[in-house]
Amino acid sequence: MLPLFHHSMEAEKINKILNQKNIPTTPMRMLVLNEFLNTSKSVSLSELEEMLTHADRSTIYRTLKTFEKKGIIHGVQENSTTQYLMCHDNCDSDHHHDLHLHFYCNKCKKTVCLEEVSFDHIQLPQNYDYKEFKFLANGICAECRG
Ligand SMILES: [Zn+2]
Ligand SMILES: [Zn+2]
Ligand SMILES: [Zn+2]
Questions:
Q1: What is the pLDDT of residues 97-145, one digit of tens each?
Q2: CA angle 33, 35, 41 (to 5 degrees)
Q3: Are strands 136-139 and 100-105 parallel, antiparallel or unpaired?
Q4: I want to staple 5 with a disulfide (CB 3.0 to 4.6 A). Which of 11, 44, 53, 59 is the partner?
Q5: Residues 6+ apart with CB under 8 A from 24
Q6: pTM for the structure as a whole
Q7: pLDDT for 70-105, tens place per residue?
Q8: Tell me: the pLDDT tens digits for 19-62?
């Protein structure tokens, strides 16, 4: 399909995810999803723009919004930038279950999901209906500490 995908295994994996989420495959969606599959850390719109030099910002932005809506990625606000991360909790359209801690590293400026620090058993007082939960921590990540 695209020269970038030398390994058909890679393209197959990407296609499978898109199919599962009922998202029609486009070259741009494949490229963006590929970037997420190649990292365990966050990716921002600006970073994607740098990595995908032939794509324009608004197309990348729309792709991110589609992925977010369909439960492929979730966004975390960090220093006025939205960092996007892969969802690993069977998220689906408009229902995200990413109730875990997000750790921002002051050194590599990336956010990671700490799924082992989970908040999905938190009980709010009666009559409180949450729309989203934000659990943020910052410091130095394991990789940067060495
Ligand atoms: Zn999610
Ligand atoms: Zn780090
Ligand atoms: Zn997360």
A1: 898 999 999 999 999 999 999 888 888 999 998 877 788 999 999 999 9
A2: 110
A3: parallel
A4: 11
A5: 18
A6: 0.88
A7: 999 999 998 889 999 999 878 988 788 898 999 999
A8: 999 999 999 999 999 999 999 999 999 999 999 988 999 999 99
pLDDT at residue 8 in the model:
80
Helix (H, G, I), strand (E, B) or coil at 65: helix
Structural domains in the chain, sorted by start = 8-145 (1.10.10.10)
Distance 19 CA to ligand 2 centre (A): 33
CA of 88 to the centre of ligand 1 (A): 7
CA–CA dist 124, 117 (Å, integer): 18
- Residue 73 alpha carbon to ligand 1 centre in Å: 6
Read off φ and ψ for residue 25, nearest 5 degrees: -75, 130
- Integer Cα distance of 66 and 47 in angstroms: 18
Cα(9) to centroid(ligand 2), Å: 30
